[in-house]
Amino acid sequence: MENKSENKKTASAKVTSIAWKINLQNVWTRARTYFLFDLLLCIVFALVFIYGLDVQLAGAFSPDYDRNVIWGKGLKEVVYRVGTDSDNLLYTVEIGQWLYWFRRAAIFIAIVQFLQVIEEMVRGTAQVRKHLRPLNEIAAQAQALSKQTFDESKYHNLEDAISNFKADTIDAGIHMHDKDLMGIETALNGLLERIRASYKQQTQFVSDASHELRTPIAVIQGYVNMLDRWGKEDEAILTESIDAIKNEANHMQKLVEQLLFLARGDANRQSLDMKRLCLNDIMKEVYEESIMIDEKHRYRYEVTGKVNVYGDSDMLKQSARILIDNAAKYTEEGEEILIRVGKWKDGSPFYSIQDNGIGMAPQEVRHVFDRFYRADAVRNSKTGGTGLGLSIAKWIIDRHQGYCDIVSREGLGTRFSVILRSV
Questions:
Q1: pLDDT for res 420
Q2: First and final CA of the chain: distance in angstroms?
Q3: Winning range, highest mean pLDDT, from 75-79, 100-104, 362-366, 399-403
């Protein structure tokens, strides 16, 4: 207890000494500031006084005038004389009364400033100590911690907890029940949870990819077996098998390309060429392409104003193509797909794709960007989708610091609005 008390007194004395030195510097700075300000004020007053008298009484100011101050018996008898030379007098002014009141005002100001300096000198040290108190407490705590003897058994408990950790256990974590190591325990468990979530996501991704690839491989293998048995002699079976194998091969190629795109994106190896772009021009190109490629649907293009974005032209086109392709898949032939470009409610640039398709339920909208997710209504349909297109579009939108607003009603259609960052 005595050592702690002595340390506290020593620290307090050090803080007081530092506070006194800082306050002394502040007092000196204030006194010097007052002196320089008063000196400058006197110089300005004298120059204005001289210039004003010359203009009023002599008609113009000239630095060549002969100026004299004649001192009398007292300050009130001082006379100021100005002439072109000693014989030609321009004007004479009794300035004693002015100097008398100027001196009294100067004395009053000097007394006020002196009192403020004294107050700063008396009270300043306490104020500096008050401001230094948090630093003093931190220093005292650091000194106390540096002298504290840490129990080495805590390190051994931490090592044992990490060694006995079982990664294959659901919701496994490190639990030591030691308040001194609570921060380390929380950090480690948070890290483990993020690793577990990332591992689960990767495992699910691999599992889904394997499942999606297994179907076309099985189809191709079935048709190859059929060709081997009967296709050599039956031309109809030969033609059917070749067409099916081509379709499944194209499907596999598309799926692999999308998987590679997402893999490069997850590894931050998908580069973007970011530039200032006109979103109207980009979407008009996509609109014209859609008209040429898809003759089964009607396309309409609306613009509510010219908007610019900062992004990658090819990537933005790809995201729009994915959304348009998705709209075309689930919209009946002859129905309209609307492409709109303009400014969002907050002034941000946006483009939207709206269809008159089958729509989605609210619970399906929440998972629409999940990889390999397909709504129940289209899970067994022959749309040819891989379940990765919207995930790729979402990745592109995220990399452009944008977001997607989805409005969908079953039986009425869906609208995807992509809101991008303003330039």
A1: 93
A2: 65
A3: 399-403
- The answer to whether the CB of 59 falls within 8 A of the CB of 51 is no
Distance separating alpha carbons of residues 320 and 293, to the nearest angstrom: 14
Question: Hey, which bits of 180-245 come out as E strands?
Answer: none
Distance CA 91, CA 224 (A): 124
| 50 half-sphere exposure, CB direction, 13 A CA radius | 17
pLDDT score of 239 more than 70: yes
Beta bridge partners of 414: 408
The residue behind tokens 């948070």 is 190
Are the beta carbons of 262 and 388 closer than 8 angstroms? yes
Would you call 351 exposed, middle or buried from its count of C-beta atoms within 10 A (0-12, 13-18, 19+)? buried
* pLDDT tens-place string over residues 267-300: 777 788 899 999 999 999 999 999 998 999 999 9
Give the tens place of pLDDT for each residue, 65-99. Answer: 888 888 877 888 888 888 887 678 888 888 888 88
User: Are the C-beta atoms of 8 and 141 separated by less than 8 Å?
Assistant: no
H or E element, residue 298? strand 298-303
Cβ neighbours of 273 (radius 10 Å) = 9
Half-sphere exposure of 74 (CA within 13 A, CB side): 5
pTM of the model: 0.50
Answer yes or no: are the C-beta atoms of 225 and 264 closer than 8 Å. no
3-state SS track over 321-362? HHHHHHHHHCCCCCCEEEEEEEECCCCCEEEEEECCCCCCCH
- Decide the pairing of beta strands 336-343 and 298-303: parallel
Give the DSSP letter string of 19-81.
Answer: HHHHHHHHHHHHHHHHHHHHHHHHHHHHHHHHHHHIIIIISS--TTSEEEEE--SSGGG-EEE
359: region left, alpha or beta (phi > 0 left; psi from -120 to 50 alpha): left
**Span 346-358, average pLDDT:** 93
Give the length of the chain. 423
Please give the structure tokens belonging to residue 97: 């009364």
Cα(133)–Cα(243) distance, rounded to whole angstroms?
83
Q: Which residues of 56-70 are buried (b: 16+ CB within 10 A; e: fewer)?
A: eeeeeeeeebeeeee
Integer angstrom CA distances of residue 274 from 309, 318, 322, 423: 10, 15, 20, 12
Q: How many helices (H) and strands (E) does the chain have?
A: 9, 10
